Amino acid sequence: MIEEIKTINDFNFKDQTALIRVDFNVPINKYYEIMDDTRIRYSIPTIKKIIYEKGKIVLISHLGRPKGIPSKIYSLKFLIRYLSEQLKTTVNFCENCIGQNVLNKVSELKNGEILLLENLRFYKEEEEENMNFAYELSKLGDIYVNDAFGAVHRFHTSITILPKFFGEKKCIGFLMKKEIQYLNQFLHGKGKRPITVLLGGAKISSKIEIIENIINFSDHILIGGGMSYPFIKIKGGNVGSSLIEKNRNIEMILKKIFQKYQNKMNIIHLPKDVVIADSFKNEANTKIVSIDSIPNGWMGLDIGPSSIKNFCKIIEKSKTILWNGPVGVFEFSNFSLGTRSIAKSIANITEKGAFSLVGGGDSIASLKMENCEKKISYLSTGGGAMLESLKNKTLPGINAIIQ
Ligand code: AMP
Predict the structure, then answer these.
(1) What is the architecture of the domain spanning 2-175?
(2) N or C: lower Cβ tally within 10 Å for the chain?
């Protein structure tokens, strides 16, 4: 499918203005220091190519959820210094995304210059697939480039409607190309075997459909964290007060998977033991028990030592690994051992030549806790978009470029 999509390599940007939808929605602290700049760093090659070809650049992005209300907290202004340093050039800024002020600033741009616009979500129209807002934005460039993988699963104006105004002159940037290529290779079972997928986290509804899609080419599917309890419950185990997402569909989907793939059940690995707590806090009393006999009033908050051993053993024999979602409440230090052990194990095996693809803010954060994120083959910049792709869905932002 990647062959059908135009990339920025299909265009020469000399004297052209590129309107680039980036995802600069990066985590920041109260001093506006960037805590993780992966998303920006991965988009730099896209911007540099256009500078090199002497094109002009208008950058559009969102930050956080300001819900249509402009505010200092969500302003993108703090990025001016960071971008200027990274790109070694002056980065101009405009407080508006549409209107005469921004049109004037765009017309003043010289070849190789950059204009960063304020947060797109200061306009409520951004999240409403609004034709007029898209039309006004479309006046700001000659070629539309989408390099915002983290937002490509959203039906938002700058993702799905804006490209319609560019006819043939629309494409994806280098970050998007890499994400699509890696995920496609993985989904076509092209990874070296054994192929292992680890799904964790709390929202089973966002991941359950993936299992059906990968079960036929995966060698191992490891299920951890809050994802595992519905499996245990349906098998008749007692999960006490452990997290079970309330959604009637999940039970139905699980039953269907159990029936349809009876002969594949040996590749789905659930934790055997868990660390349970008598309340949802770091200082709770804890015990280690079998995952299917959690006493009432207790909840599983991390995988136990023999599950860690089993999961890591499987990971360490794998040649391709995809990971999304923590195997416990890793935000509490007393329940983070499982997730941190997984992170280290994936990093180790990557160093030995395996290919690893990790997505989701929590999984990436746990790699950082262990200082091993740089060892991973590819950190996906979009957890949600990665999950949607793994369900074999063509993402709305990619569709908008193909059409
Ligand atoms: P998700 O967005 O679905 O990947 O969920 C991530 C969240 O799952 C993290 O905040 C974890 O704390 C949480 N989580 C993982 N395991 C458990 C568990 N056993 N019980 C409750 N929450 C969990």
Answers:
(1) 3-Layer(aba) Sandwich (3.40)
(2) C
pLDDT tens digits, residue range 148-186?
999 999 999 999 999 999 999 999 999 999 999 999 888
Contact 162, 287 (CB under 8 A): no
Decide if 234 contacts 255 (C-beta within 8 A).
yes
- Percent of the chain predicted with pLDDT > 70: 100
In angstroms, the CA 129 to CA 9 distance is 28
CATH topology identical between 2-175 and 188-390 = yes
Q: What separation in Å is there between the alpha carbon of 325 and the centre of ligand 1?
A: 7
pLDDT for the residue numbered 2: 67
| Catalytic pick among 54, 164, 203, 391 | 203
Which amino acid is it at 89? T
Domain ranges (residues) in the chain = 2-175, 188-390
Q: Whose CA is nearest to atom 10 of ligand 1?
A: 329
Interval 327-379: pLDDT, tens: 999 999 999 999 999 999 999 999 999 999 999 989 999 999 999 999 999 99
Write down the CATH number for the domain with range 188-390: 3.40.50.1260
Active site residue 203: yes
Q: Using an 8 Å Cβ cutoff, are 89 and 51 in contact?
A: yes
Active site residue 124: no
Cα 27 to middle of ligand 1, angstroms:
19
Could you tell me which of 393, 392, 316 has the C-alpha nearest to residue 356? Answer: 316
Q: Are strands 56-60 and 195-199 parallel, antiparallel or unpaired?
A: unpaired
